[in-house]
Amino acid sequence: MRRYDVCIIGAGPAGLSAAIEAQKLGMKSAVFDENHRPGGQLFKQIHKFFGSKEHMAKIRGFEIGKELLEEAKNVGVDVHLDAVVMGIYEPHRITVREDDSITSYSADSIIVSTGASEKTIPFEGWTLPGVIGAGAAQTMMNLYGVRPGKKILMMGSGNVGLVVGFQLLQAGCEVAALIDAAPRIGGYGVHAAKLARCGIPFYLSHTVVKAEGNGKVEKVTIAEIDKNWEFIPGTEKTFDVDTVCLAVGLTPMSQLLRMAGCKTKYAGGTVPVCDKFGETSIKGLFASGDVSGIEEASSAMIGGKISAVGAAFRCGFINEKEREQKYDEYSLSLFKLRKGLFSKENKGRTDITKTDEGIDLSMTLFKKGYMTEEELKKFVRNSEIKGPHPVIECTQNIPCNPCEDSCSFGCIHVGNEISAVPKFDENKKCRNCKMCVASCPGQAIFIVDNDIGDGYASVSFPYEFCPLPEIGEKGFALGRDGKDLCVAEIIDVTTNKAFDSTAVVTMKVPKEMSMTARFYRKEVPVNE
Amino acid sequence: MERITKHPIIESFDKGRKVAFTFDGKTMEGFEGEPVAAALKANGVMIHRYTEKRHEPRGIFCAIGRCTDCVMVVDGVPNTRTCVTLLKEGMDVRTQYGKGGTEYEKI
Ligand SMILES: Cc1cc2nc3c(=O)[nH]c(=O)nc-3n(C[C@H](O)[C@H](O)[C@H](O)COP(=O)(O)OP(=O)(O)OC[C@H]3O[C@@H](n4cnc5c(N)ncnc54)[C@H](O)[C@@H]3O)c2cc1C
Ligand code: FES
User: Fold this and answer.
1) What percent of chain B has pLDDT over 90?
2) Cis peptide bond prior to A525, omega within 30° of 0
3) Rounded CA separation A45/B61 (Å)
4) Does the beta carbon of B79 lie inside 6 Å of ligand 2?
């Protein structure tokens, strides 16, 4: 039997953060993961994270993963890969399968950070090859560079569905539609807007009737449902797709904790009953990350640190005062992330109609994934402003403020409450550096110049697709709904290291389109 | 189902060398160290196995080793999760029938 001060199960964001923190507090720590690569879900997440600087906002998930791994190595954490933890035995012993042999490890504390697995939903034909989890799609395309399908129907409008839907487009797949049985889009409006402006239709209050095909998915039929979740006859629509992606929620993987005999409760899945440090009903056995309740990667990282602090106290590495001090610091950071329209308390609510600032929320954004100009006008004043300036189309209270930090000229204000809606300060002068456009994880900031002469305006927007448009090229300017508006000419394409793979493209459009044109597609000649 | 050659965010996918393997006796190419399932997908293979009772086709579902939908007979070993089994040169990958055969008759 081998011994560590603390054994951590799962090398995702929670587990790695816990291991680093524990090691820093003087504990000899080991983290075990059944995969051949550490990082859990992080390495599949190629989008920029929300939050603020302290939450590593604006950095892409896989970059955060690399940083965590590097740090774990530097502080001396033992990372065991291809190591399946098979059981937890009292008091603090685990059995691990490595290389087809089984080893026992003992520790003074154990932290379980096994993450979550995807839920699924049955419908006629759901077992056909081609019906896959959204996580499977992310794994195939972002880790292994293989497209999960050519033409895809995404089911589920939570953040996972929205983010993976966009990543499918980035991988060069076609997304036929995004559907959800709920009447409102469940994830961030800014994530939905990225898809909508690419022309992806949203079908809310719709679900799959059946998937059909000879040995694989070839055709999928959806239909609208009524309040009792019954199909409404005559509303069926059929798509010729080869893949259905399910993003219908996650469920904690708490089997090991249950096996150990922890007290559990039901909260969207079976979760352990924990104190504020993540300590379960069994002393010295902690849980952090998705296994203790589904959230997202940023909060999983903080949760991991908190459980390490708890474990360090339990094993006598820090005293009570030190524990409380650290807890206060980390829980404040967590508190900031847990605010806003999509916080736990507000989950599933459909009665919220105003932002914290008292502005009417866009109802079209909840239904179709984009805002109407009328709705946007309540948030941004534009027409009177001269010269280039940011138009911030971030209209829901979400915990995120990289835009504020990105502007060295102080043009953008969010304030201490990071879930506040950002505002452009008209008294400050925008220098058109475009940092805000590239930094916004929701890709919701545009630089607009209402008058560049000859009856034209310019609109700069973030662009994360291949190939990049070229200066001088002509195509169609698209509206927020992804529909063709007018001819646009590309007048600038800026990429640089600080933009981190997000290009900022500027197009010239007729003046009256300055508040309508938000995206671009290259005109494909008719004979191609 | 092709491979992604240009991606706006991911500069390169770290892949091993190109190797040959067989799927039901047919030679295919993949990259060493990628999951067998990824190599099959890149070659357009959708069906990994047929179920025991109703002989229904199954393919990749979770791609992270949880659901066991993707199991096949790999180098003679039945019930191998191809989404977490890494490709090696010359691997013999076969469609699985039922609980472990390469044909129903043999079960
Ligand atoms: C498919 C999917 C997509 C997601 N997309 C996003 C997103 O785009 N943005 C976002 O913010 N959040 C996303 N999330 C949520 C986010 O990834 C998680 O909240 C976060 O990764 C949780 O971190 P974790 O460390 O708790 O778990 P994970 O990252 O899941 O890590 C858990 C690790 O434990 C390992 N493990 C489990 N059981 C064992 C065992 N018995 N023995 C050894 N190892 C084990 C797992 O293999 C895994 O590596 C997604 C989650 C999933 C499942
Ligand atoms: S696809 Fe689920 S185990 Fe392989």
Assistant:
1) 84
2) no
3) 19
4) no
**Percent of chain A clearing pLDDT 90 (strictly above):** 87
At the topology level, CATH places domain B18-97 in: Ubiquitin-like (UB roll) (3.10.20)
Residue A466 and residue B62: Cβ atoms within 8 Å?
Answer: no
Taking alpha carbons only, the member of A393, A400, A305, A276 closest to residue A343 is A400
pLDDT given for residue B1 in this prediction: 53
Looking at the predicted structure, is the pLDDT value of residue A405 above 90? yes
Give, to the nearest 10 degrees, the angle between helix A297-314 and helix A320-337: 170
Do residues A84 and A277 lie in contact, with contact meaning Cβ atoms separated by under 8 Å? Answer: no
Instruction: Report the DSSP pairing between strands A29-32 and A270-272.
Output: unpaired
Q: A251 C-alpha vs ligand 1 centroid, how far in Å? A: 11
Q: Per-residue pLDDT averaged across A483-512, rounded?
A: 96
Chain B residues within 8 A (CB-CB) of chain A?
A: 1-4, 6-10, 13, 15, 34-35, 38, 41-42, 46-48, 56-66, 69, 83-84, 86
In a domain, A527, yes or no: no
Give the residue ranges of DSSP H helices in B5-76: 36-42
Nearest to A467 by CA among B12, B5, B1: B5
Query: Are residues A505 and A400 both part of a single domain?
Result: yes
Domain check: are A242 and A282 in the same one? no
**What CATH number is associated with residue A73?**
3.50.50.60
| Mean pLDDT of all residues belonging to chain A | 94
Closest to A129 (Cβ–Cβ): which among B2, B35, B59?
A: B59
Q: Compute, in degrees rounded to 10, the torsion defined by CA atoms B13, A400, A429, A383.
A: 100
3-state secondary structure of A356: coil
The whole domain housing A212 covers: 120-246
Contact flag A136-B56 (C-beta cutoff 8 Å): no
Residue B73, min C-alpha distance to chain A (Å): 18
Structural contact between residues A368 and A202, judged by C-beta atoms closer than 8 angstroms: yes
Per-residue pLDDT at B107? 44
Cα torsion A62, A67, A72, A76 to 10°: value is 140
Total structural domains within chain A? 3
Using 50, 70 and 90 to split pLDDT, how confident is the model at A313? very high
Please report the atom of ligand 1 found closest to the CA of residue A83: 43
Query: Which of A444, A454, A460 lies closest to A197 in space, CA to CA?
Result: A444
Is the Cβ atom of A15 under 6 angstroms away from ligand 1? yes
Chain B residue with Cα closest to A37: B84
- Is residue A143 less than 8 Å (CB to CB) from chain B? yes
Task: Please determine, for the modelled complex, whether the ipTM score is greater than 0.90.
Answer: yes
